[in-house]
Batch of 2 targets.
Target 1
Amino acid sequence: MGNPVPGATVALDASGAGNTLTQQAATTDASGKVTGTLSSTKAETKTVSAILNGTLAVAQTPTVVVLPGAATALGFTVQPSNTMIRDRITPPVRVTAFDAFGNMADSFGDTVTIAIGRDPTLLGAHLSGTTTVPAVSGVATFDDLSIDQLGSGYTLVASGPAVSGATSAPFNVTLLP
């Protein structure tokens, strides 16, 4: 036990999704080692395992934490709901930053601005409340938004620096609940 085994066949594997695991060689080198490279599009904790000579699992299973990439896009993670004229939209609208692979980019802390996208009125509806907020851990929360005109099919648009924006699902502003 503990002696290097050159020429042993080793297959590496990693838990989770979106993995690419490459090995330089399928057999151990003269010092009994084999190396591999793990890359992944899914930000999560991975467990790496090895099978020796097709049957014997190696006891050590290291974990690797894959972090999300830089933010590239915004998305509505809590959509605006139907609301009454001049009432706050509840629950609060949330816009989340995502990396190029769809992982939440929790390091994003830039400001996010929200505005009316589609305005179904002929009068030019006004969005009230705090329309620019900083993202905290990748999430911008808009908790005091309201619209001053009745209409069906409003949308909101979110934008931020160096990321592609997003458009919400349609919602209605009514006189009564």
Note: Residues 73-174 form a domain with the Immunoglobulin-like fold (CATH 2.60.40.720).
Target 2
Amino acid sequence: MEDMVTKYTDLSVKYSDLFTKNNDQSAKYNDLSAKYNTLLTKTNGFAGGSWYDHTGAAAEFVCLPRDPDLTTKFTSRAAYIYGSEYDNNEFGHDSGNDLPCSVCRSTVESSVLMIPGKSSCYDGWSMQYHGDLVAGSYLHKAATQYICLDEHPESLVAGQDDHNGKLFYPVRTSCGSLACPPYHNDRYLTCVVCTK
């Protein structure tokens, strides 16, 4: 009976485990596995989101599964989802390469925090990974969110055509309303993902 309850619980929360950010999991963009001691990989997939230049675009990046469940029940207008691409060569991959992602769950910590502008965690927090702060371009219409791209970016082998979609760019500082110092104008920001 306990085994059946466990299976039911696993199935009933599968969707929310994969696609929502609870306080014990996070999407790790461009890394195919959660390779740290306190993380379990829940799924590997394709980073995606709205078209970079659509006015009514959704803001967030998502990690799409490799085994989607699709439906044909709708026939009216729709929102669209696209794959994510590097839009320059500065991440160590060709422009147009698609990004993989994985959704990870912490086995011991219950809080996940992404800190922009830091490469290490504050005392009492455990680092899961660090890298570069990325977002959509300020020149594009669509809203995006800031995410932390792993310092060792990967790309999908089959996704090398430049079709745009949801695009990633490194984030630079702009002094004025941003306090300078401690920040410096036109410098790229790092980031770190910490758990506690």
Note: Strands lie at 25-29, 39-49, 62-65, 82-86, 100-106, 112-116, 126-135, 147-150, 166-170, 190-195.
